[in-house]
Specification:
With 461 residues, the protein is an alpha+beta fold. The chain is 29% helix and 34% strand. Strands 3, 12, 13, 14, 15, 16, 19, 23 and 24 form a 9-stranded antiparallel β-sheet that branches. It has a 4-stranded antiparallel β-sheet with strand order 1-22-21-20, with helices on one face. A 4-stranded antiparallel β-sheet has the order 4-11-9-6, with no helix packed on it. The longest helix has 28 residues, at 146-173.
Length: 461
């Protein structure tokens, strides 16, 4: 066969066919590579953006690093009850805390109401728990004591005889001289002196039986026996500065009952004056020296009510009254007392005229007393909620624009309410930190970093 007679275009067709057959047979070897090359874009910048999903984003926020900074939405800040606090230098007084309890003032708070005379209770005015003013009627007693009846009768009889003598003397002295013998007038004068002495003695006898001057005067004026006695609330004892304003008594206990026969001196009820109470603290012998200094210098003491295991209702400006003169042999603790001014918080009057009040502080309430020990000047003082503990590290969260930066700090001292931060440049006056919500910010930051959350972080065990 003469190959020179075949046209060139036939050879081109045969070459292309042969190459196609070879490519088809070897497609399993080169086709995957070709597909990968075709799938990759030819633009280098586009390749970089596709390879790095974070490319093109700015992670270098000004003033903070993402690993130590957290950003919360407005709702997030509300959810954690965020409260800002501006850092400032202030003085801090270190205190010792001692347990205490509110008690009544011995010999001042409680007053016993006793029956002044023997008789039968015919009426009781206040009910137990009510509030009464000084001089208010409390009990009405029908007198049955024979000695009292006799003493009243003698007083009236003596008063009548004295009136007769006075009239007789007036008649005799009005007669002309020499009509009546001088010894007759003298005898009447002696009799008058004797009756005056008897009247004074009988008045004193009635006063000793329990009547007052007004009641005795009424017996002499009306010439009638006193058959009913009303027992009134007494006047307040000598007042203190906190009890200078008018205030009422509280009927603590009502012992007597209507129709009950009572003897002179028998207890009818107990009233209390709660305008001022005492806080009874218990301290150990090691604290005695410091307590004496506080009492001598009249340094202010603060106290907090202990309600459901939490400290509430802080009272400041209190002063130590005195220290007990003996130590408990079993607990080795001694008592000391702090004056506690009181105030009425609610009051109401019922339809039947009974008046009720509620005092802010009540005997039996538990408290904690904070006794000053030493004072530090120019310190950074933050609430305990503002500092988060994580092992040896302590953090606060400082506001930086719309973020909060984690700032490590050195804690010099901590009590139940405050933390003293070293003034070493970690924080400066004018910085704003999270006074509340710092612990939640710390958890958010750890979750943001992908680390495990320590459920005990931020808690002081």
């Amino acid at each position: 066969m003469n190959t020179h007679s075949i046209p060139s275009w036939v050879w081109s067709i045969l070459t292309v066919a042969a190459l196609s057959i070879v490519a088809l047979v070897t497609s399993s070897l080169w086709l995957p590579t070709v597909r990968e090359l075709v799938a990759q874009p030819s633009d280098p910048q586009h390749n970089a953006e596709t390879t790095d999903p974070h490319a093109g984003h700015d992670h270098a926020h000004a003033g903070h690093a993402e690993t130590t900074s957290v950003k919360l939405s407005a709702n997030g800040l509300k959810n954690i009850n965020y409260q800002p606090l501006t850092v400032e230098l202030s003085s801090y007084t270190r205190n010792i805390t001692v347990p205490a309890m509110i008690v009544e003032r011995p010999g001042r708070t409680q007053l016993n109401i006793s029956a002044p005379l023997t008789g039968v209770i015919t009426k009781i005015y206040p009910v137990e728990g009510a509030s009464i003013e000084s001089g208010s009627p409390m009990f009405e007693i029908r007198l049955t004591h024979e000695e009292l009846v006799t003493a009243q009768s003698d007083l009236i009889r003596t008063a009548e005889n004295l009136d007769v003598i006075n009239r007789e003397l007036a008649r005799l002295t009005g007669l002309p001289e020499g009509v009546v013998a001088g010894n007759r007038i003298l005898e009447q004068q002696y009799e008058k002196q004797r009756l005056d002495a008897s009247l004074r003695a009988e008045r004193q006898s009635l006063l000793l039986h329990g009547l007052n001057e007004k009641q005795v005067a009424n017996i002499l004026e009306n010439k009638q026996l006193l058959d009913t006695l009303t027992v009134h609330a007494p006047n307040h004892l000598e007042g203190s500065e906190s009890c200078s304003e008018a205030h009422s008594f509280h009927v603590q206990k009502m012992v007597a009952r209507v129709g009950q026969q009572v003897q002179a001196g028998e207890l009818l009820g107990v009233i209390a004056d709660h305008c001022e109470l005492y806080i009874e603290g218990r301290a150990f012998e090691d604290d005695a020296v410091r307590l004496r200094e506080v009492a001598a210098q009249q340094l202010p003491i603060s106290a907090s009510l202990l309600t459901a295991g939490k400290l509430t209702d802080e009272i400041t400006g209190l002063h130590l009254m005195y220290l007990a003169d003996h130590v408990d042999p079993q607990t080795r603790a001694f008592r000391f007392f702090v004056a506690l001014p009181n105030e009425v918080v609610t009051e109401r009057t019922t339809n039947d005229g009974q008046h009720f009040v509620e005092w802010r502080f009540k005997p039996g309430q538990r408290m904690e007393l904070h006794i000053p020990v030493e004072t530090w000047e120019d310190e950074i003082v933050l609430p305990v909620e503002a500092v988060v503990d994580e092992g040896a590290e302590k953090y606060v969260y400082q506001q930086n624009g719309d973020h909060f930066d984690q700032v490590p700090v050195n804690v010099k001292y901590r009590d139940q309410t405050n933390v003293v931060i070293a003034n070493n440049g970690a924080l400066f006056p004018g910085d704003v930190v999270a006074a509340r919500g710092a612990y939640e910010m710390h958890l958010t930051l750890k979750n943001q970093a992908g680390g495990g959350v320590d459920p005990h972080a931020g808690h002081n065990h």
